[in-house]
Structure formats: structure tokens, C-alpha cells
């Protein structure tokens, strides 16, 4: 269901989801959405049975930490476990590349979602793209996940 993005078409599908979710639905500007890490981050993409793109995320390696960003599930597919699958898939990809520590900036409404995946919030609320966020992190120590 989820695959590492390797082709220009798959990257276009990632952008289609982000355009729909972050720019149209959440009102983030295109300038903020498309950042300087576009071409160095690692992406995953998920498709439905008809081949429509439905979920995506990316990570960037910062020292020994994988920073997870741009997590999005198309509205019609939310609340069905798809978001959880996206996070597991991006974590697995980063684990394969040697990462064991993950962090992300969670929109505050999504904190319970990330907590259900083992992330813990720390620090104060901060604003990013006009949306309140908190930092969250997780260490993977359970060898069953490796
Ligand atoms: N509040 C509380 N719990 C939530 C939640 C919310 N807003 N969204 C999901 N959860 C919980 C679910 O109840 C579920 O818990 P369970 O496993 O105990 O049943 C768990 O988190 C996984 O939910 P899931 O169905 O996999 O999540 P999803 O497919 O709806 O995806 C988002 C979650 C946040 C990725 C999705 O809502 C989304 O794309 N939102 C718009 C973009 C966005 O805000 N991205 C996050 C940026 S930090």
C-alpha cells in the first residue's frame, strides 16, 4: 500500500495530496508548504485500490534524528487507520536507514494521534504557518519494530 517515492510521478502525487490538505484545506501558503528541503527529504506515498493518492509523509535526517514532516491523509480516508499506517511506514523507512530517534512538530489537534503511536510532546506551543504546534519525539527501542 505504501511505497518509497522514487519517480517524478509519485512525487507529483505527494504534491497533489499536500496541495489539497495543507494549502486548500488548512490555508497554508504555497511558499511555506514548499520548502528548501523538497528535493533532499525522503517521501512515502499511499494509493487506494483505484490508484488514487491518499496519504503521504516525509522525513529528513538531522544528525542522528529522523524528523517526520508533511503527514497528510486525504479527508475521505481519515479515521480509518490510514494515518497510523503512514507513520509506521515512514518510521520503517527511516529505521532501515539507521535512525532510532524520531521527532516532529505536531499540529496541536493531532497530538492525541501521535500519542497513540508512542510520541511524547515537550516544550511550549509554537506557531508555524499560522497553526499552533508542539514538538514531539519518540525513541524506538523495541527490537520487534526493527
Ligand atoms: N484527535 C484524537 N485522536 C485522533 C485524531 C484526533 N484529531 N486523529 C486520529 N486520532 C487517533 C485515532 O482515534 C486512532 O486511535 P486508535 O488507534 O486508538 O483508534 C489513531 O489516532 C490513528 O488514527 P488514524 O485513523 O490512523 O488517523 P487518520 O488517518 O485520521 O490520520 C491525520 C490522522 C492527522 C494524519 C489526518 O487527520 C490528517 O491528514 N489531517 C490533516 C493534516 C494534518 O493535520 N496533518 C498533521 C500535521 S502535524
TrEMBL record:
**What region holds the N-acetyltransferase domain?**
1-141
Identify the InterPro entries for this entry: Acyl_CoA_acyltransferase, GNAT_dom, GNPNAT1-like
Question: SUPFAM superfamilies attached here?
Answer: Acyl-CoA N-acyltransferases (Nat) (SSF55729)
Q: Which domain of life is it from?
A: Bacteria
Q: Which PANTHER family match?
A: GLUCOSAMINE 6-PHOSPHATE N-ACETYLTRANSFERASE (PTHR13355:SF11)
What family classification does the UniProt entry report for this protein? Belongs to the UPF0039 (ElaA) family.
Q: What is this protein called?
A: GCN5-related N-acetyltransferase
Q: Which organism is it from?
A: Staphylococcus americanisciuri
What does the organism's lineage look like at the top?
Bacteria, Bacillati, Bacillota, Bacilli, Bacillales
Amino acid at each position: 500500500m505504501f511505497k518509497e517515492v522514487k519517480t517524478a510521478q509519485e512525487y507529483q502525487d505527494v504534491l497533489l495530496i499536500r496541495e489539497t490538505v495543507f494549502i486548500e484545506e488548512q490555508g497554508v501558503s504555497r511558499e511555506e508548504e514548499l520548502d528548501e528541503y523538497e528535493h533532499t527529504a525522503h517521501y512515502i506515498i499511499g494509493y487506494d485500490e483505484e490508484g488514487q493518492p491518499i496519504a503521504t509523509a516525509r522525513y529528513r535526517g538531522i544528525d542522528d534524528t529522523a524528523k517526520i514532516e508533511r503527514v497528510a491523509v486525504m479527508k475521505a480516508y481519515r479515521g480509518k487507520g490510514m494515518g497510523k499506517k503512514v507513520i509506521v511506514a515512514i518510521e520503517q523507512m527511516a529505521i532501515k536507514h539507521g535512525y532510532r530517534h524520531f521527532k516532529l512538530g505536531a499540529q496541536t489537534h493531532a497530538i492525541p494521534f501521535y500519542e497513540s503511536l508512542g510520541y511524547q510532546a515537550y516544550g511550549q506551543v509554537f506557531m508555524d504557518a499560522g497553526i499552533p504546534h508542539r514538538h514531539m519525539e519518540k525513541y524506538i527501542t523495541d527490537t520487534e519494530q526493527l
